[in-house]
Amino acid sequence: AKDLQYWYPTSVLVTGYDIIFFWVARMIFSGMEQMKKEPFKTVFIHGLVRDDKGRKMSKSLGNGIDPLEMAEKYGADALRFNLITGNSPGNDTRFFVEKCEAMRNFANKIWNASRFVMMNLTIDKVQLPEKLELEDKWILSKLNTLIREVTENMDAYELGVASAKIYDFIWDTYCDWYIELTKTRLNGEDESAKLAAENVLCYVLLRILELLHPFMPFLTEEIWQALPHEGDFLIRAAWPTYQESLHFPQAESDMECVKAAITAVRARRSEMNVPPSKKAQMILVTKRPETYTVGKHFITRMAYASEVTVTDQAPADLKGMVTVVTHDANIYLPLAELVDIAAELERIAKEKAKAEDNLKRIEAKLANESFTSRAPENVVNAEREKAEKARSLIAKLEESAAAMKL
User: Fold this and answer.
1) CA 161, 163, 165: angle at the middle one, nearest 5?
2) pTM of this prediction?
3) d(CA 136, CA 144)
């Protein structure tokens, strides 16, 4: 009787849509008849897994996938993550072996990032430092938002959306950016700065593992056990919660501007085939110089500059300068001797045409009465903001083209 009390009724039944009548309905009828109580509160109906051509897997077609074989080859966690990501509730999903490979790469990325963190750890207890740098506030604020959104998605059974957000945060925000941003402190002489970086690196990694655990239980448990942590098992650890004290909108916005500048300069240098070893002086012109002054050392290191000058005045002589544009800064690089001016003008024209097409699309949306009246206010405002950014980009590209023709 104790067991029955514990196990009946349950809260959620997870099932495919093809057996609603054969299985779900009969369980409800049987439960109501025998127990006088419905057997579960919620039925979560998912789609079927089909082959890569969209056909139902069957023995006669011989198109089934052996999960044990896939788990052996790519790892059980990669297989799980493949099935969870990229599909919406109730819709069928196509199984692509290549996606298992991509998810194994994701698992490797987490493993390598965790190994890097562990190699740099000297702490045995994680505690967020009182003095947080710009990049620390940025990652903690982004993590905070991620925790809130993923929790909301999970509560609404939007597993595909939740897993995609975690994937993007780990791959891009944590691995490709934050780890890079901390390297100066980790390799520096300042012991307190090094410890602060270690604590934030580890704190964020622990929260990531907690969020990822329902999707990739084996990998996350293994890494969690090797990090400084509290409790015996990750599966019994508390789910992360949003904390108002870790909400830093200004730092987030400032760091995004610095990131945009680094990304834009690197992309331009790559287009012009300028190797990272070829450092160049950089003049960054913006109406918000204080934003870029704080992150100047990141731009110098990660955008391969010999020196960065932050100012609110464009240089008087733009001859021989290449202009890189972000939504709130113009960056001038004296790379003319490395650049084909005609090709550069053609590239600016293409980028401008693309921005104009984008603006037309947004303006058409905003001119549509049914969109502006029916869509939530924050969605409409987001589109208006996109339009403003596109206009600003077009104006800056026109300036760049004019400067190149001097």
Assistant:
1) 70
2) 0.79
3) 12
Distance CA 284, CA 299 (A): 10
The H or E element containing residue 136 is helix 134-155
CB proximity list for 77: less than 8 A, separation 6 or greater? 103, 107, 215, 216, 217, 218, 219
Q: Pull the structure tokens for residue 101.
A: 């490979």
pLDDT above 80 for 116 = yes
Block residue for tokens 């290549």: 98
How far from chain centre, in Å, is Cα 146? 9
How far, in whole angstroms, is CA 301 from its chain's centroid?
A: 23
- Is residue 310 a contact partner of residue 292, using CB atoms and an 8 Å limit? yes
Please write the tens of the pLDDT for every residue from 167-218.
999 999 999 999 999 999 999 999 999 999 999 999 999 999 999 999 999 9
Measured on CA atoms in the order 85, 90, 91, 97, is the torsion positive or negative? positive
Phi, psi of 170 (to 5 degrees): -65, -50
Amino acid at residue number 125:
K
Round to whole Å and give the CA distance between 106 and 341.
40
Task: Residue 178: count other Cβ atoms within 10 Å of its Cβ.
Answer: 25
DSSP type of residue 339:
S
Identify the CA nearest to 334 among candidates 344, 345, 323: 323
pLDDT tens per residue, range 347-377: 889 999 999 999 999 999 999 988 888 888 8
Taking Cα atoms as reference points, which of 362, 365, 359 lies closest to residue 397?
A: 359
- For residue 222, CA distances in Å to 57, 60, 89, 200, 213 come to 33, 40, 30, 20, 11
Q: Which of 199, 31, 35, 11 is nearest to 117 (CA)?
A: 199
* Residue 206 amino acid letter: L
Supply 290's token pair. Answer: 């204080």
d(CA 70, CA 49): 14
